[in-house]
Amino acid sequence: MDRKRRVEAAFSAAAATYDSAALAQARAADLLAAALPALPPTARVLELGCGTGLLTRRLLERLPTGASLLATDLSPAMVEATARLDDPRLTILAMDAERPAPGLGGFDLIASSLAAQWFDDLGATLTRLAGLLAPGGSLLLATLGSATFKEWRVAHAAQGLLSGVPDYPEADALAALLPGATVERHVFTQDYADARAFLAALDAIGARTPRPGHRPLTPGRLRRIMAGLGSPCAVTWDILLLSHTRSPA
User: Fold this and answer.
1) How far apart, in Å, are the Cα atoms of 168 and each of 43, 146, 164, 240, 245?
2) What is the pLDDT of residues 176-208, one digit of tens each?
3) pTM of the model
4) What CATH fold (topology level) applies to the domain 3-147+165-187+238-245?
């Protein structure tokens, strides 16, 4: 099974438990929703990586009554969860954000919260998504930055090991992937009882697929790393909010 299929399977398995553990994800969705641009009365909106609808609900609260929202996710189980939202403006579609369905385009807003860190090729996907915007349309995307889970990385390094956490970008590197984009950085910590609770929370949201090539730890090494995280522990979340607007016609 390739990595994308593993990611899909992990999130599908977590559809029933996601909302109970998605505290940082809810905070990221709030940050993105607060940054929404003004939209025309009949705005066409595309959401990528809708999950169980954390951002979807916030978008529906803020969109004009005449707007339409197409919410998509790689995981069919996540799409099914979001489909339970009752709003005539909402359409649901299972779709890989890196391979948009044929015929899509002309969106006044494309929004995505904490899905882009799973993309295989972030730069190419950002360029492709910018091409789906209508003139004057906006791309607003929240993803994870380089300081995310730094405590978990440090606990690995203390044992001479590299963690399975991917190499997330710095803010300036993310902005450079899409000409004209700006990036805001929001850093906060999330408290956990201990490393076991931290890992359980990642399991509950389906976010335990490691970087490509990472080998699972032996039980002994894992115990030492978990002990190094401390009890209780605070773990960093580094949220990068990218904004890009297509030039008017």
Assistant:
1) 32, 5, 12, 10, 23
2) 999 999 999 999 999 999 999 999 999 999 998
3) 0.96
4) Rossmann fold (3.40.50)
